[in-house]
Amino acid sequence: MAIANESRQEDRNMREEHHGAGRYWVIWAALLVLTAITYVTGRMHMPTFGLLLALIIATTKGTLVALYFMHLADHRGANRLVFAVSILFVILMLIAPLADVGTRYRGSNPPGSQYSDLQAVDIGANAQQGRYGGQNKPDTSEQSEGH
Amino acid sequence: MTPSSSIAAPGATPAHEEHHDHHPSYLVDGTTIRSWLLTVDHKRIGLMFLFWVLLFFLVGGIFALLIRVELLTPGPTIMDAMTYNRTFTLHGLVMIFLFMIPAIPAVFGNFMLPLMLGAKDVAFPRLNLLSLYIYLFGAVLALWGMLNGGLDTGWTFYTPYSAHTTTTVAPVLFGAFIIGFSSIVTGINFIVTCHTMRAPGITWFKMPLFVWALYATSCIQVLATPVIGLLLVLVAVENISGIGMFDPARGGDPMLFQHLFWFYSHPAVYIMVLPAFGVMSEVVAAFSRKNIFGYRAVAYSSLGIAFVGFFAWGHHMFVSGQSTFAAGMFGALTMLVGVFTAIKVFNWVGTVYKGAVDFKTPFAYFCGFLFFTVFGGMTGIALGTVSLDVAWHDTYFVVAHFHFIMVGATIMAFLAALHYWFPKMFGRMYHEGWGLVSAALIILGFNATFIPQFLLGNNGMPRRYYEYPERFQALNVASTAGASLLAFGFIIIAMYLTYALVYGRAAGKNPWRSKGYEWLTESPPPTHNFVGPQPTYPEEPHFYVDPKKAEVPDAV
Amino acid sequence: MSELLNNILFLPEAASTFAERVDMLHHFVVGTTMVMSAGVGLAALFFFFRYRRRLPAQATEYVVPTLKTEFLFVSVPLVFFLAWFGIGFRDFTFVTTPPKDSMDVYVMGKQWMWKFAYPEGPNGVNVLHVPANRPVRLLITSRDVLHSFYVPSFRIKMDAVPGRYTQIWFEATKPGTYQVLCTEYCGLSHSKMLAEVVVLPQEEFDVWMKEQRRGRLQDRQDALADTSLVPPVARMVEQGQVLAGTQGCLKCHSVDGSQHIGPTFLGMYDRVERLQDGQDVRVDEAYITQSMMDPGAHLVVGYQNVMPTYQGKLQGPETAAIVEYIKSLRTPNVRESASEGPAYDAIQ
Amino acid sequence: MQSSVSTAGAAAPVPRLAMHFASLEVQNHAARLGMWLFLATEILLFAGLFVCYGVYRFLFPDAWAASSRSLDLTLGTVNTVVLITSSLTAALAVHYAKEGKNKAVAVQIALTLLMACGFLVIKYFEYSHKFHIGTLPGRYYFYEGIQLPGAPLYFTVYFFSTALHGLHVLIGMAVLTFSMVRALKKADFGPNNYTMVELGSMYWHLVDLVWIFLFPMLYLV
Description:
Chain B has helices at residues 33-37, 42-70, 81-117, 125-147, 161-164, 169-196, 209-241, 254-287, 295-308, 324-352, 361-384, 386-392, 396-426, 432-459, 473-503.
């Protein structure tokens, strides 16, 4: 007594074509080429677009892995939705704190950072303390304030 | 959506009386301890969850009473400051992680979801059992930590305090981390069940609204819980070894901790309250014998709350040093969550319109719930109004607001569900009179407990205060008095329900004459839910129209 | 009217410009909330009564909302909520953007007290003096964990984050004394971390400020003919702090109350200590100076004689500067209740 | 729906259909959807670290560039290549499982495991170098070469994310070992029964996917 579940459409979405193994080798080669490119450009230490470029290449590689190694190209419907939503949430989750840090009152950002006018204080060079925290000074009145 | 009323056959009648003897109910199908502890039956797992969840509710409730007694006088009353700080932390932790989050999904969700979808079980029954044991393991670890030194950070674990406190942070955090897995597993299970296990006839927009609510809840559980898991591990490691991820002395940002914390913990509020909304959609439809007014609007608003609720977290941080711009962004998104909740409220009231109301215990809880949700929700909007929150943040106004939502909405729904589905789960009826009396006591006691706390917050009393200036005393005494009334109500419930469990009269298959899908099988259901052929579901749930004059307009 | 509403809602007296602004919205929002809850509740009650069940298995009509109804359900709350957000965000921007001419006060929270400091002194503990009708910007920081500076009568609150500054401003409208509470959980005595704001009329504030700046320095050194030759106290404290670091004092003495090889400087000055020979001594300038020059002379119970002498390593003014620095770290003990009067110590 | 596999193995054993599923297709679909959901939680787990990374990189760009250069880019790239190749063999294992070639499945998984071990060994050398020169998280940092505020934070993020990733490598290895043992002992993978290999390999691809992003984030700032 099989339960004929209402998931026919999803089953259609799940249909997988069986491809030859050659396809995986092609993807692999593409991934290696992209790795080589990112290695070379990474060596150049481009100042502003270095990380951006590297991340674009990484996204391309990630898409290839997800689509063909993980068969997202074949798994449609809910599977794609799940993956897409998780990526969307990662992006949105990143944007909000960055927007906060970038627009905060500058005194509220970690001292010594790009968005703060306060000097980081060297809190000691020994192994137990680590270096360059924003250790607050014992008395506030001496720290420069950021307007 | 047009219900296919042309099919004259009633929904489904799979169970025949003559089969009944061969298919014992799930309660008696196997009576050994082993048959309970190693069961993969969603109903038995739901019942075991019910047991543990109620136990932890009792523990959390005792902590709550201790807090209220301590606050009777401005100075020390029954405990010292450290004990008090641990007590409110444990109250928060037990209530949130051990009671509130699993309460409705893991108990009633587990029990009802397959029944409502016409399925024999959830998609992954063994994972379902695993989630129970993960939950218990995490609970044991957390409670062990609580007993061995306790934790005094408040349930929010804000750094840098949690990184430096000498109380046992790490075991409790790891315990909460493990409980998170249980929540994730339940979420995955429910989502997959909704996608793959629906019986013929149950299309997406014929799923009962409780299922929709659970679906939205599960989405939140799956997407948000991993983040708090990571964060708890980070804080635990920081507390143990000082790696300095959020240590302001090394450039770390405590506000980043708050961002990540509330990325989970704000949606967690919807993990707690969305199932409550779902339960109430069922209860109001069943007891006013009406289809839900604006079914699609309610279903979509569940998803809307789940999605928008994710991006409103910054309203917990308006005065934390967050930027004004971010505060504006989060403030505006908070308002949207309010709109989605308003849609639900209006549609519930609309459901009663032209209905046939039977004022039974679950419905009494619905009345309380409606008031608490509106008042709690609107005060939530008030708190989300950026400038007002500057004064209210971290005062008793906040405490009162979230208790209105968590106790007012969720526990009312939990009790309504317990009463509504009691005959479904156990096949017995409780005493209706006592039910109404205790419902009245609880609703009154609840108001008496928390309305003074709103006023306390207005007056400026901060939360987590062991001692307080004397001008706050009168309202605190009022609140404690209300809490004792509330406790009394719970004791009555415990007594008559326990009595009904043993001596209650047989309820019959469908004592409420409800047309929810879960009532189409026996009460209590047999082990695999249905006897005989696979039921089909031509009608939408809660379709109470007289078939003879079934002229139905198009729904929105 | 507003007074009456404030009394019903238990709101404390509104004593700042922001409080007056925000109370209007408060009344609007809370009023709407109550009307709405009552409205929904009454509508529901009416329906329960009007549509009570007459037959056990009564059939009902199939009622679904029209698009217009649903639109109404969405748009009415949305309009209200967005209006509140608009007004609220305007006020929030107001309170987080201090005017250019505001007076700065540094606020530091620490477990469990509030320290206040004006840019040119004085500084003090648990009582903040501000002039009425003048914008005051608070630059708030913390020394240990998160705290939150909350003045109910001003309706302002801002977290104190260690190692960072947050800012908020207010303009007090009425002279008087207002309570300050800590609203971010900060450990054992979180609920005892109270302070107060004393709002003085501008003239009185100026007088107070002048007195504080002269302070006890004047009393002590009034024998000196020319006070202008004395280095400013604030400079001396600063110098003392630098010296304490460079001379290695801080290797053994902490300044945050934690115990180390030597006693902490925090709150050391003016304390009475039991010596190893059984006598009591008050830690004053003389004792501190002697302890630097001849550390073993009078040891306090519980400490080893391990400190090297600074005889010849420190010049006279340097010794004085370190003494001043230690004096600046004196703290009254955490009080059980809000203070009764000014607790300021002028830096001498 | 039976046509979902084009090259059917002749005597492919059919796996047990759980009593509550309608058909094998639905059962496999459920397993796959469940796996995707689980992978989504894994992505969100790492997302927490990505946010920490993003915020601190945004605040301390110079320290992060300098710290990133103290890593060995060549070793990182070699590790990337190793992991990508192991992903290829994992994908091929699924391919052969569908064709019922159980021997080939075992060989491909063994290759994957071998490369996973290689990855961990290289990671070990990178770690021990850092322990040696003192580029360690938070208060353990004692490297004199980079004296910029924020540098210890970089290594907090570095160690936490690579350790978490390493943990996932270990879990992935355990999962794949199960499939390998089954391919060797029972040898019952075939066109109707390859879900176990498929899910294990999906997990392995996720491990690869995370590394593909960690690599530029950590090595190529």
